[in-house]
Amino acid sequence: MSEKMWQGRFEQPTDSLVEDYTGSIHFDRRLYRYDIQGSIAHCRMLGECGIIPHEEAAQIIQALGEILREIERGELRLDAAQEDIHMAVEQRLIQKIGEAGGKLHTARSRNDQVALDTRLYVRDVILDCRRLLLQTVGILSDMAEKHIHVIMPGYTHLQHAQPVLLSHHLMAYAEMFLRDEERMAQCYQRTNVLPLGSAALAGTTFPINMEMTARALGFPRVTRNSMDAVSDRDYLIEFCAASALVMMHVSRLAEELVLWSTTEFAFVDISDAFCTGSSIMPQKKNPDVPELMRGKTARVYGNLMALLTLVKGLPLTYNRDLQEDKEPVFDTADTVCRTLAVLNKMLPEIRFREDRMSAVAGQGYALATEVADYLVRKGVAFRKAHHVVGQLVQYCEKAGKDFTECTVEELRKFHKALDADLFPFLTLQSAVDRRTSPGGTSSQRVREAIGAVRHETMRRLETVDADAPRVS
Fold this sequence. Notes:
Strand order of the largest sheet: 1-2
Number of domains: 3
Number of helices: 18
Distance between the termini: 37 Å
Largest sheet: 2 strands, antiparallel
CATH topology of the largest domain: Fumarase C, Chain A, domain 2
CATH architecture of the largest domain: Up-down Bundle
Shape: elongated
Radius of gyration: 30 Å
Helix content: 55-70%
Order of helices and strands: HHHHHHEEHEHEHHEHHEHHHHHH
Strand content: under 5%
C-alpha cells in the first residue's frame, strides 16, 4: 500500500476497502492528457514567475512529457491506491526525478486542478458535439433538397392534419439541431474559463500569473472568485442539459423513423446496416438503432438529474461528493457523440417511399382547411367557414366519398358560396404551394430555408474552428 501525498497528519494507513470505495482512478484516468497539459502550463508559469528554479521547471516539464507517452503506450500501471489520475501522475513524476517533482504542486490544490482538467475535457467534447450537430444539419439539408418534390401528410395528435413537403418536415429537425449547436456554443463560452490558481478555495500566497497559464491553455479569461472556481459545476450541468435536449431531438426523429418503418405507415426503408433480425421470426427487420437512440436518451436524462441532485445541497466550497460528477459527464459525452456519429451514417441511407407518402397525404380529409380558406376568400367569416366544412366532412364520411367526388349541387347544400372554382384548390400540390408565409411548406419557402440553413451551418463551422483553443 503506497503512502499518500497527504499522509503526514495521519497515524493509520487508509483501509483497503476505503481505498477501493473512494478511488476514482478507474474512471478519471481518461483525464490524463488534460492533467498533464495543465501541469505543464502551471509548471512553466511557476518557472517564469521565479516561484521554482527554471532548471527544475524544465526538468519537471520534460518528465511530464515522458509520463504522457508512458500512459499512451500502456506502460504506466495505475491502481486504486493512487486515488485518482492527478495523484498517479504526481507520484510517477517524483519517482522519475525525485524531490524536484514535489515542487509541481506549489500554488495549486487538487481542487482547482480537478476543475481545470474537467473544463479542458468538456471544452473538447463540446467542440466535437458542435461539429457532429452541424454535420447532422448538413445531411438533413441535403436530404431535404433531394426530396423537395415529395408531399407527405403532416400530423397533429398523430392524426392527418394538412399536406406538407417531406423536405419541410426534415428541415424542422435541422432547426432543432441548429438550436442544439447554439446551446453548446453558449455552454462552451461559460466552460472556457481558467480556474487554476484558485488553489484549495482562498487563492494562493505565491505571486502567480494566471493570465500566463490561461494563454498557454487557450483560455480567454480567468475566474473572478476562487471559492466559486473550485466548487462550480454549472458548466457540467449545463453540458448535460444541452446534451439532454440533443438526445430529445434525436429521440423524436428516431420515434418517427420507427413509426414510418412499420407496415402501417410504410414511409421509409431503413438500411439493413442499421437494423437487426429476430431470433425466432425469420421475416423480421427491426429498427434497433433508432430504438436504441430513443432508449439511450433516458440515460442522458438520468445523468442530468444525478448532477443536479449531487450539487443541490452542497455548501461552499469543495466537497468529496463532487468526485461523483465525472461518471455522469463521461457517460453523457460518450452517449451523445456516439449517437450523433451513428445518426449521421444512418440518415443518408434511408430510402423514402415517395409514392406511398404522397398517396396517404390526401387521406383523412387533409384538404379541409383549403375549403375553409376558399370560403373565407369569398367573404365568409372563418368561424362560419369552419363550421360549414365540418358539416361537409361529416357528410362525406357518411357517404364514403372525398370532397373532389362531390357535385357542385351537393357542395351548395352546405353553403351557396361553394362553386366549381373550388376544385383547383383541392390538390395536394396546390395546398402545399399556396403556403408561402415565412416558414411555410411551399417549395419556394423550403428552398429558401435550405439555403439559409446551409449558409448558417458554414458560418457556424467557421466559428467552431475559431473557438478551438490554441494550446502552447
